[in-house]
Amino acid sequence: MQRIKGKLSSLEDLIIFIDRLKETRGKLELYLPFRNEEIVICHNGINFLLSSSNSELPEKKALKVFLEKWFLNGIEPVFELYEGEICSEGSPIYEEELSQILNDPSLQLVRDIPHYFEITKIDVRNVPSFLVAHWRTQRPVNRDDVYKYGSTLSDIVKYIENGLLEIKPFVNIKSFPYKLRLFLQALALITVAYISLPIGYMKLSYFKVFEAANWGIKEKLVGYKTRKELPVKGCFKTRFYLIGNKVVNPGIDGITGTDDDINFKLPEKGYIPVFAFPVK
Fold first, then answer.
1. CA gap 31, 10 in Å, rounded
2. Least enclosed by CB within 10 Å: which of 51, 111, 227, 259?
3. What is the pLDDT of residues 4-38, one digit of tens each?
4. What's the rounded Cα separation, in Å, for the pair 64 and 58?
5. Distance CA 83, CA 25 (A)
6. What is the chain's alpha carbon radius of gyration, rounded to the nearest angstrom?
7. Residue 118 burial (10 A CB sphere; 0-12, 13-18, 19+)
8. 141-142 and 239-243: which strand pairing?
9. In the Cβ-directed half-sphere of 220, how many Cα atoms lie within 13 Å?
10. What's the pTM?
11. 212 by DSSP, 3-state: which?
12. What digits encode the pLDDT tens for the residues 106-125?
């Protein structure tokens, strides 16, 4: 018995391995990495047998779902081919049926089905009831819903091609109230500007430093030697403080001792505070 292991790069490779099974007999195991899904195709010398790790679906439909997820996720399945191994497990499937599933042109179109879509037109008599229910309640459908109700994306493609269904991508533009969306947009613009401008907004607080320094000198004159909040505000309404012999603005985070602090050392002597604006 010969064992071959590797990854499938295309559907054509899978078809080649299945054709080889007819000549050598044996078993072909297929795995989708990270999804814990397995398909086993074997040939006992007379018939093909098909089995799946997905016990909730018939084997033929499970094979379709396996192939669709392969195409949608782009992750190459791992295969193990056991040539000459005797196998007896699985449901019989005619070679014509197997070939029809593998060569179904709808498989190549499943990528065109949006992850979320809404139904704009439907033939309620000829499509599954879960699609009718989503249409009547105006709820979007996602790909997982299709699989959950025992259908496949290939079926959706065929409904569309036969004129039984019309869909369009679902865009959730009403997720937030208008005022909240406006606020979030403005916040995003401010954030982008803050990151991209050559100087940060906090550096503009230096225009307020000298006013804060005057207040700091005044507080030193009256005898404050510990932390004192000064009646001056910088950008984003940040406060200035007299701390020891320095005027400090703690920056946007409001915490002194961090990287965005602005520090201005006051003179030790010979200073006279000057106020250009009257203070209430």
1. 14
2. 259
3. 889 988 899 999 989 888 888 889 999 988 777 89
4. 10
5. 6
6. 35
7. middle
8. unpaired
9. 22
10. 0.59
11. helix
12. 988 999 999 999 999 999 99
Strands 246-249 and 239-243: antiparallel
Query: How far is Cα 182 from Cα 48, in angstroms, rounded to an integer?
Result: 61
Please give the helix or strand (H or E) that residue 248 lies within, else none: strand 246-249
* Residue of 96, 98, 102, 81 whose CA lies nearest to 25: 81
Rounded CA-CA distance 46/210 in Å is 94
Q: How far apart are CA 241 and CA 71, in angstroms?
A: 62
β-bridge mates for residue 241, sequence order: 229, 248
Residue 53, CB-side half-sphere exposure with 13 Å CA sphere: 10
Instruction: Map tokens 């209430």 to a residue.
Output: 280
For the record, the structure tokens of 180 come out as 């909240």
Residues 6+ apart with CB under 8 A from 80: 3, 4, 5, 28, 29
The 8-class DSSP code of residue 277 comes to S
